[in-house]
Amino acid sequence: MCFLADCILNIASSHPTFTANDIWQSQYFKHNCRVVFNKPYADDERAKNEYNKWFSQPLKLFHTAGILNADLTTRPATYSIKNEELLDYISRRDRNAYNFLYCFFSKVLKDSGFWRFFEEYLENVRSERDRAKTELYDRYYRLISGNTPSQSRLDINRMFHKVLNVLAAEHNVPGSSGKEARMFSDLMYNKKNWRDLNKEKSITRQEAAEAQQHDEQQEAYNAYYVQKAIALIRKIQSESEVHDAWSNGLATQVHHIFPKSQFPEIAHYVENLILLTATQHNTKAHPKNNTQIVDKDYQLVCLLAKSDTIEQSLRQVGERYYRKESFLYVINTGLDCELSMQLSFSEIKHNLIKLYNRA
Q1: What's the number of CA atoms in the CB half-sphere (13 Å) around residue 80?
Q2: Closest Cα partner for 81 from 27, 157, 14, 180?
Q3: Among the residues of the chain, which ranges form H helices?
């Protein structure tokens, strides 16, 4: 959902009215879909059926949610953006797409009168897991088969897996697997991380080649999300976030507070990116324009400034762009510390100053 929202915004910049095929055939989609999801090339005929489903269901959901206009009388159906602000929110990060889906699914189930059955499931699933799940799926089957042309129990159950897992993750209860509680991370397209690759010297040439290919794909995968985060910073910040003697002039540089080369796992976090002027970036953040060197004193300055940016953004627009928890994760990763997620922003800044004074 997050990725497709990003592709829709991309295609709509040149095609205000578009079809699924327009997105499908765009170079932006072809390149990034393969990078992000490790799918076959978008123009591979053998993958046509898979891509048809991959497009049609999210586009119809966006239409039902009032995010897209749709003319379903044409073949193929044509779409245009109705709520760009919400579509942009969904496109920014996976967590935003999750938040949207939870709100959307909750409203649909409440409007249909089904929500009370999910509340019963919440009450019973921990003590009578199998029975609670069976009853919930039976009730959903009766709802769909009694009100839509769909009569296949298999198809209806597969549809409900996606709904239940989002709700289950939010309420920390078992989902479609019926086993352990669902978590947000369970909802992602699983992708083996580069840190998990077998590094043993005993691997075969074939295994080494596969590992190298995986590394290359992981780099491309990371690059997509880093560029997406950088684009967001450029969109929401118009001037330098650090107000010092070097902040005069155009703010053109998006700086990784903790370097991408040293901390690839947080390189795509917008909480780790800050907009600076060229002077701030090339003489203060990286002395003598040496990007391999980070000035620790100025790194603290950037973190304190970013804390102010995030606090102000959360106060004005909520979690549309930033999350305090993500900022703390960036700090804990970059400084190898364990600051509590319960800290206020003033406490975060106080702790940052203490950490750097000890260094």
Answers
A1: 6
A2: 14
A3: 2-12, 20-24, 27-37, 48-64, 84-92, 94-111, 115-124, 129-147, 153-171, 205-236, 278-279, 296-317, 324-335, 345-358
Cα dist from 21 to 44, 52, 73, whole Å:
14, 9, 16
**Total-model pTM:** 0.78
- Tell me the two tokens of residue 131: 């029975």
Tokens 């999801």 appear where?
Answer: 37
CB 89 within 8 A of CB 77: no
Q: Could you give the residue ranges of the DSSP H alpha helices within 237-295? A: 278-279
Tokens 């044509």: give the residue.
78
pLDDT tens string 282-333: 999 999 889 889 999 999 999 999 999 999 999 999 988 999 999 999 999 9
Amino acid at 155: D
- Residue 67, C-beta contacts closer than 8 angstroms, at least 6 positions apart: 81, 82, 83, 86, 87, 90
Token pair belonging to 355: 């950490």
Contact 192, 217 (CB under 8 A): no
> Residue 79 phi/psi, 5° resolution?
-130, 160
